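> run fold Type II secretion system protein H
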Amino acid sequence: MHPLITPRRQRGFTLVESMAALAVIAALLAVGIPNMTTWVVSNKARSAAEFYGEGFAMARREAVTRNAASRLVLSPNPNGQLDWQVDVCFPVPAMPCSADSGSWSTVDAAADNDPNAASPFRSIYRAAGALPSAEVLVPTVQPQGSSTVYFTALGWVDTTDQQRLARLTLTPAADLRDAVAPVALVVTLAGIASKCNPAIAAPDSRACPP
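> ok
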């Protein structure tokens, strides 16, 4: 550097400028973080219907594919949501598959009489831990206290079980109702779980059946 040239002094932020910048950042965070939180929770809440719909569809599919009885079992977990599990059962004349009888598969063991001895079916379990808690998205079942729906080998609902699960409703908390609509999964006698909106009345096609 030439000895006669004096380097320019670097100018930093003043205290006032720093405080102003921090105030702007704080304001942006105050607005952005709640909106981001609502967005994340809303997306998780909307995905809940797909999570449970997958379970109903899998139970019906396994029954038809394996020519067996199947069932979907819901069980509460610590966050208040419902885990699900799909089991199968292969009936024999002396022991039909029902709520009270039959050899049902578990996650650790295959059912008796599974014809696919080389690769027998073991129950499929899915945890609902990634879903919002029941304080955010409230699950209710109809009839009250029901937790299981049974499928025949044709994929139809086994109507001999009088306490079979017929509907699962997911209701968002009050502060989410503008972002997330309530949804119900209604299990038809044909074994199809169809989505509907319990807050809408007939004759709107989105309404739930009576």
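DSSP finds one helix and eight strands in the chain.
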